[in-house]
Amino acid sequence: EGGIEALTGSAGSVMFMHCNLLHASAGNVTPWPRTIVYINANSVNNQPTNLRRAEYHCNRDFSPLQPLQDDCLIHP
Questions:
Q1: How far apart are CA 48 and CA 27, in angstroms?
Q2: Can you tell me the distance from the alpha carbon of 34 to that of 27, in angstroms, rounded to the nearest whole number?
Q3: How many CB atoms lie within 10 A of CB 1?
Q4: Is residue 37 part of a domain?
Q5: Greatest CA separation for the chain
Q6: Are 64 and 74 in contact (CB under 8 A)?
């Protein structure tokens, strides 16, 4: 129905997707390391009900994110 898409990119590429999207990743067959960073953001109203997972998998700090200034990443 929706098809399958193979996402590829050059070194340093970033891909954003919904965390409920079915996905897979083949093993790294290159001699260079591949770093994967997972960041999931949820509404504070959608707190986990099962806290048996490790802290690095399921953070217990449910305080809302605070906005920063638009230029917060610009170095003088």
A1: 30
A2: 10
A3: 2
A4: yes
A5: 50
A6: no
Give the tens place of pLDDT for each residue, 19-69: 778 777 788 888 988 887 877 777 778 878 878 888 888 888 878 888 999
Q: Angle at Cα 15 formed by Cα 49 and Cα 39, nearest 5°?
A: 30
How many domains is the chain built from?
1
What six digits make up the tokens of 60? 């217990």
- Residue 55: inside a domain, yes or no? yes
- The pTM is what? 0.44
What is the domain range of residue 45?
29-59
Asked if residue 46 belongs to a domain, the reply is yes
Place of tokens 């700090």: 61
